[in-house]
Amino acid sequence: MLNKNDIYSLANYGEVVAGSDDEKRISHKIISLMEEIVDEVRVEEIRVMNWKIRDGKISLDGKEAEKCSYVILPYSPSYHEEGLVNKDFMFEEVSTLSQIPFVYERCLKNENCKALFVTLDERLRKFVIKTPPLLQRGPSMPPPKPVVYVKRNFFDMFRRSSRLCLDVDTTFTPYSTGTIIEGILNGQDDHKAFYISAHHDHWFHGFRDNMSSIAALLGVKRGKYERHLLSFTAEESGSPHFSSWSWSYGSHVFTKMRESELERAVLNINLDNIDIGTLETIYTPGLSLLTKSIENSKPGFDPYNDGYSFVKAGIPSIMIESRNNPVYHSEDDVLNEGILSYVTESLPSLINRMLNNAEDVNTLDRDEISNFIKDTYTYINTEMKSYLTNFLRAIESNIKRFQGYLKDDRYHIFSSRKR
Question: CA of 325: how far to CAs of 28, 207, 316, 329, in Å?
């Protein structure tokens, strides 16, 4: 049985970037903890791209800015530029970190923009920058200009300066090694399997996102069916070739590598970014029998989540996350005793209860899937209506066909529109 000191040790590793020495250290710790509770541990090493900042310095009107006031965002390149603040650099305030790629796209189109400076609030935060076209898994161009996140209470000082000098020294290692850790709890029936997942790479201290999820993962108990506990690399960053779909790479690779083995999988539960008070449960349509007792749960899909890799592999997923976590990707995402108690006690109990219920009922509710689709007919075009009509007829005769439809991009276009 794990104790809180084990979780304290995970929470105090500091930043863990895919493919780094820090990832190797935390992987060894997770492996040792899993070995205490599971029947078998499998370790899969995959190729990832590691980004690292060696140094960064900003001078405003000849005076060096305080290191605590800014952070260089991944994947900024090495860079040296100086110029006039109101002419050569772009300053933008955003309301969410997810706006940064779109602001960066405007910077790239502006020939006079030597670098982008962004702010959200008084906390230092990180978010991967990428080049367009966005949301694609194929290779993209490396970001040619750096992005600097500045604390809100320093932002006006940066913007009021006359001259700015920016020095950035970063490295990219395209053939780094990331680790996928899989702990297996044997069951009495080997015809079906459950996959419970989280990721261990994180920015800053990353307690909510995502060491708290690793803690909850280690509280899963054995049951009738095999239960696989997965800790992924490269959820935050690490996808090779600067893919603009820079997240959830480890789970994407895993589901591709284990395609035949995953034919036994009937359910994934993915844990990510756990914060009390802002938790949401997003489940694949048809799973409400398992989630009906959970507050703030709804059917749908979240592509910004490792659970989506399982959905695209045809495996229904329950994604437990806090998308409105106020310290998301920030320096203030540190150990919290209240969350620690929740993820070592209440959350594992909830997960075990859902898994036990899934062993006793048909996992997917055909009527719920049909109703979810029919509710959207008003908002879709004729081609999609035809596709979904055939879909409904297919699952009426064989609910198993739903898993094949989950792999179809057209179904996910329709689903994302609904959300």
Answer: 28, 12, 25, 9
